[in-house]
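User: These chains co-purify. Model them together.
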Amino acid sequence: MDQMIYSIVSVKKKQRELNTLLVGMKGVSGADLYAVFCDEITAVVSNIKRTSLVADRSNAMDYARVIETLAQKFTLLPVRFGSVMESTEMIIRMLGRNYDEIQSNLRKVENKVEFGLKVLCDSEKIKAELRAKAEAGTITEPALASQKSIYKDYLYEKLKEHRFEELLLAQIDTIIQDITNHFAHLKPIHKFQKMATTTNIIDDVFLLEKEKKDILIQAVEDLQTQYADLHLLLTGPWPPYNFVDLTIK
Amino acid sequence: MHDNVVDRSKDITILEVLDRVLNKGVILTGDIVISVADIDLVYVGVKLMLSSVETMEQLKSGKSVNV
Amino acid sequence: MAAIQLCRSHHKVINGMSENKILFNSGSPDELSEEIGKFTSNEESRLKLTPDNADSGLAKLVLTLVDLIRKLVEKQAMRRVDGGSLTEDEIERLGETLMKLEMKMEELKKHFNLTDRDLNLNLGPLGDLM
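Assistant: Joint model of the three components:
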């Protein structure tokens, strides 16, 4: 029977506790959850009929809720939605093959949670401001050639866009540097993504001890006073979705 | 007005959850059932390929790209 | 009393999370609705892919890769032009080639009835990749 895998959990001596917890829970499509053990690590799975799995929002949210509930009591690595293996035996073998890497990842996230900080602003607006500055003649162009050509015009338009993007990225780098310094005292593990969308100019995820939540909120409030015109969004605590560095063999 | 704020909060939470559950977390190779996920795997492969290009460029030019 | 309890559990079911996940949020709701809109359309187009429309799924994948490579080439070209090492003639030829590549891409997109959004074209700042 196909099994959908929700997460890989660090169990150690708490096998009974896990089983008890799973009995009271339901997975995607109301399926029962159970644990597949391999020494100190466990995969939490539910039976799934390959053909009947519908990848819709409600299933994805149910899936997330399972992980969320487990994460309250156990150290775990969240698994991506839609991960299915053919049998319990295959799962056990997979856990065995990747045992060391899984364990080192579990150690990395033990007692820690993830927080997400998004910096949002309209990058098109910023680019427009940069363009306005350029009209004032501060951005130099290569000397225009003697002959007009649509190809050259096209190229120079592209060149201008390119330069604005570079300037925008430079500004973003400055903000990232600022953010890093600002949160340095919390000693987090950071990951940044620049320009994930045109509004989300910085997408920052932290791995941090749960206890530091309030200090983090304070630090974000301080950051906001420094960047009054930026929209900051802090969310969490989350299970460590962004901090699993694992290539499953 | 209050309802709007509550709805917005729900939307934000849903957005954050879905982004994590659909795009992040451990990726198992092998039997991924949903074809969406199959195409996703190739994207992961693409990202790996692209970072190799970046490394190549850095090595060739001998200067660091991110100042 | 019962009505209030029903309301609360209803809220929990929708939210799915045991606590409020938003710790700090400044700025206008409008910025975020744009964010949410972008994500949900991406997410929905992903989730709609099934074995039945695998063909257009493949077209999307191929075109995304092709367009990505085209944009990388364009980016590198801009760096060369900015560097000032190209002759006027080279600049002219570069402009012509890039323009034709872009036009060809538009043609392909139209042929497969795909928009930029379909191709998930926002893959982050390409500057990082070079």
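Confidence is low (pLDDT under 50) at residues 30-57, 63-67 of chain B.
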